[in-house]
Amino acid sequence: MTDVIARLSAANPVPVPASRQRRRWPLVVVAAAVLAPAAFAADRLLGIANEGTSVPTSSVLPGQSQLDQALQEMQVGDTMQELGTVDGVRIYAGRSATGHVCIAIDHVAQTYEKGVLCDWNEPGFPDGDKVLTFPGQLQGIAADGVATVAFVGADGSVLDSTPVTDNLFASSTRIGLGVAAYVEGLAADGSVVAKQKLPG
Any idea where the domains of the chain sit in the sequence? Predict the structure, then answer.
């Protein structure tokens, strides 16, 4: 397991600290085709309103062989959903063979600003975790009903926040690893609908 995590970390190329993180969700390599869990109908593959457009996984991060390999190890299958571009960050998502949501990001105007990760928690995104983001920078996807996402310190201070548009968010602010203690999802009225602990 440690070897697989190390390979994923190495696959996220420098100089992108937010894309090189070891998530609290360890990689699990399984030999199986990608299948949507029975709880999700064909038109609700990701369980969110923005289901995007299906594209070949090989076209998600072209030319990034290490990231392509990481996606294969996460078993996201032959296709992912292109969800859209927000603030210059194109975001893709798909489900692994075990039914967990994985995402890929591509800063379309920058060669190395790319990354991949999976939420291996149970029940995971979107039923358990409402926000799926890189732990050093707010970039990812949010469940329906989340209007804003924020990094929060251990003392409750807001370190960064950014709006959610069509389930997508991308902040240009880099917090760095171990600085934020939690990621929060807030409803349109400002109430906290999700609070997830980040890896230290």
Answer: 2-197
